[in-house]
Amino acid sequence: MSPFERSQKSPLPIRETLRGKHVLVTGFTGFLGKVLVSMLLERAPEIGRITLLARGKKTQPAAKRVRHLFERSPGLRNLREIHGEGLGSFLASRVDVVAGDVRDPLCGIDPRVVDRLGASIDCVIHVAGLTDFEPDPLEGVAVNVRGALHAADLAARTRGRRLLHVSTSFVAGNVSGPVPELLEPGLSANGTRFSPRDELASMESLCDATSKRFPDPVEAKKARIERGTLRAQALGWPNLYTYTKALGEHLVAMRGDVESTFVRPSIVECARELPFRGWNEGVNTSGPLVWLVGTVHRRMPFAEDHCFDVVPVDSVARGTIVALAELMRGEHARVYQLASGDTNRFTFGRAVDLTSLVRRREYARSDDAFERLVLRHLDSVVHDRAADQDPWLPAAKKLTRGVRDLFSAFKAEHHLPSAVRERFGTEITKFAQRQAKEWGSASRTIGQVVEMLRMFQPFVFDNDIELETHNVRRASERVGAEERALFGWDLASLDWRDYWMNVHIPGLDKWSLPLMHGERIPEDPVFSLDTDLLEHTTREDDPSERPRALRATDLRAHEAKHERSGESAAPNDAE
Amino acid sequence: MASGHTSSPGASCPTRRAAFFRLEGVMHPAGAWAGAAYLASNAASMRTRLLGLGGAAFSGALRGVSLAGAGIAGAQTTKLAYSTIAGFSRDRVEVLGEDYARDVLVPEARDEAVRLVEGARRDGLVTVLLAESIAPIADAFVRLLAKDGPTFDVVVANQLELDDRQRATGSLLSPIISPEIDPKRLRELASLHAIDLTTSRAYGRSRADLVLLGLVGQPCAIEPDRELARVARDLDWPIVRARTPYEVPANPDGRELPDHDEGASL
Question: Is the confidence at residue B1, as pLDDT, over 50?
């Protein structure tokens, strides 16, 4: 029996394993990052220290940005509710901040700071990443490939030399059927042998060459995306997102100087319980699909029985912490897929059916007559046809654009008789302007959905993957009953109907879908930390240059400035 | 007997008294076909909606004919009504069943019947709901009614057959709860729950409930149709009406009558 096999028979005490440990987390400002950190702080307060890597800006130093999130982000509401006024003191004893950017070497941290911090860091948890399906390859490579390598470089200079790398299950590529938890560097998704290092170099040179060929930045970006996507597809990945994430995995896995493990969530969606039921951030994969079901468009271009592999964000955080505990003890697997399909399969057909049922109930109570009398009775049905073969949405886009043009072209002096114009001209003109705006907005939204469906097609129609999750389930079984309730992998018992109807869709309606209409998501009420977060800088060696105290007055001044400029004070990282 | 029990003592000695209520007719005026029509009218596909509505309406008409003594078995009309939702997902059946119970059954439940359930519970009787409707509707009715009112200890309802993909095949699982209660099945149910039928109560509304009423020691007619009213009068069964003065039956054999609330017009 190997040491690994022996370890699998022993218990996995998570809090004891994390007691006094120091981890550095990238991507804290993103969706998963917040939930992961809040779960660690809420359920494993024994952890020694969490250093959060965050990008600083001229107007907003990293510590200020992080502090603002702890004070206002709904994703960290649970910590505010638990600790109340004492949250500042609690955070000061557990959390500090270092400014940096994963696109830069050593994640943009000054080497002197790295040396000082690295002496105590046991593990780097690399969550940051770009989740756009079609990123500019320049950015995709910089964040998802170089960023992963920079995180590995950083981990190699720490005491623990451990890296937990958060990737995606969809690195499996264009495949159908069971997907085992394997990672073989140099073997692409379609089985082609390739050199990850050469692939990175050739993708970067492809980007350079394309940029030089097209002087117009917009044209250059479009060409980079087209060529990069072709390259990704040649190796069996459906898009640049999965390609760059996979390349990052392969390159990190080839390194011998860090002990690494790869956590691969599938489609990360609304929380089941932490920070609270239904929380979501940004527009994730299911948002546009759910939005579409609520419209007059009835025929969804999905494969009815294909797996819709959704996982709540807090379940992903649980699985990540279990993997972290095994990594800390040197008892880890190479890959942990965090998915639902192999134990509790959810399908696109079921998602459409449940979404229709939710919308039906809402529309039945709506004050809007169109919703109550028309939309309520237009349940969506799965139409086993790919999005690129569906003529209805492009036609709807043309129609709405045509109506917009008609209203835009309306001129009271040309189209109304003088008697009517004199009496109602102003009102009618205003009405036409309003309608032009609304139909234009509808046309743009439909255009976005057409584009999204095209991008989602590999996942909602072409491929039916069943992601195996043996490793996280095996690791969870090692966790004692008390801790399993807090950290154990819990998807086998998930009641999809309850989750979808009572958690997920209300969550999307509140936290995600307004973004598709250009609305802003409100932050939580003002809450002021009573203690400042430490930001590591190169000047710490000099006591007179200790990190500047970030007082509440500074924060208020900063917020006021942002409110004036209309800029978001808390931009999110991608993951 | 197909059932969705909410409690099951498992005792075999018949020592408990029970009160049997029919969902269709007694607790609510509408028949089971109305629930099937509600579900069918909310099918995802328009074609299924139209066909389903037609089928459910036809089943309702057949039910009327069967009650008029045309020789059509009540079970056949029940089967026909629920065959209209073939292809429905389990999710859709359960969600729409709950909607039907919430929007139709509970708001329109007969007040006097609800009070009789409350009275039976106060008297320590096992309350049993016999539903010709499918379990998702009956269970939701019981669950929603219990929020502000009485609950049922045992729910017996028809069960939809589902295929491997959790879609309704359009068939009901055997045995089927039909308008006419099968005496053998009722005795089995009573035995399972240690219910003594001779001291139990039952409430019925139509001629189809005569078998049920005849099996228990304390039968009672609620808003009876003409034929049941005639039988009830002949046999001195109590009759509950919502708006008319109650008919006080003679009680020649000294049987204990159901204890009615002051709110129910007896």
Answer: no
